[in-house]
Design a protein that fits this description.
The chain is of the alpha+beta class. The protein has one domain: Bifunctional nuclease domain (Roll), CATH 3.10.690.10. The chain has 5 helices and 9 strands. It has a 7-stranded mixed sheet with strand order 3-2-1-7-4-5-6. Strands 8-9 form a two-stranded antiparallel ribbon. Strand 1 and strand 2 form a beta hairpin. The longest helix has 12 residues.
Length: 172
Amino acid sequence: MTTFMEMKVAGIALDPTNNAPIVVLRDLESKYVLPIWIGIMEASAIAAAIEGIQYSRPMTHDLFKSMLESFGATIEKIEVVDIKDNVFYATIDIDYNGAKLKIDARPSDAIAIALRTNSGIFVAGNVIRDAIQVDTSKDAAGKVVVGFEQDKDKLKEILEKMSPEDFGKFKA
């Protein structure tokens, strides 16, 4: 039987080699860090949920949440269930009138929905074991630092070089 570990979104970072967004998950005890490379739109959706940003019209993940609520369904949790050839797989676990449903999803979408519904995020032990490992360290205050938190000048340099077109044509 597969064991799962509960994780939280630690933040969004940029891959220094190609500027691709990464959602960073961290277990509740801060022992494990799991980076998942995602698209810019999904990064925007996750960041909006983290920051509590409400748009005047519903975005796709908000629409999904509203549809579930109107049907009386609830999200129990999301699970990152596998990784194959550096591609992550996830499911959204839904309770609909007592029926338990598992919906296949990209982890980025599942995470964006979990954040909007205050649902748990769980990752299979084999995914944590097989995924790319990230070095973490602690700063002077004892806070775990990941990725660009260790090199803020590099992040600033990358962001300064980016243009609005780098984020696509999407406008909220």
